Amino acid sequence: MSKEQDPGIAHRQEQRIKGVVFEELTLTDNKEHSSREAETNELNLDLVLDVPVAVSIEIGRTEVDIKQLLELKPGSIVELDRYAGEPLDVFVNGTLVAHGEVAVTHEKFGIRLTDVISPSERVKKLT
What we know:
By secondary structure, the chain is of the alpha+beta class. The chain has helices spanning 7-14, 31-46, 66-70, 119-126; strands at residues 55-58, 88-92, 95-105, 108-116. The protein has a domain at 51-126: Surface presentation of antigens (SPOA) (Roll), CATH 2.30.330.10.
């Protein structure tokens, strides 16, 4: 079927793109507006409370070449870039959100958070 015979192509070519005007964003001290905004944020947050996220803890990093990697065997020690006693990094979906220390609870490892990175600091690291 050629372009001339396809009515869908002709219709799409006739459609016009309309401009969109965005409202200017401004900061306000209006308490009523702020409380409405807080309610809206809470409502929006409720929509994602059941979404699973991946939490991982990093004790350190290192780089090795492939030869060293292939030589690893049980009992090998891989030296990391951190000293004993330094805080561990807590990542959520790959984003650093906190620091902590190893804890043991009910015979399982855990992490006791010692510092939580503020949302504004996390945003700064993204830019």
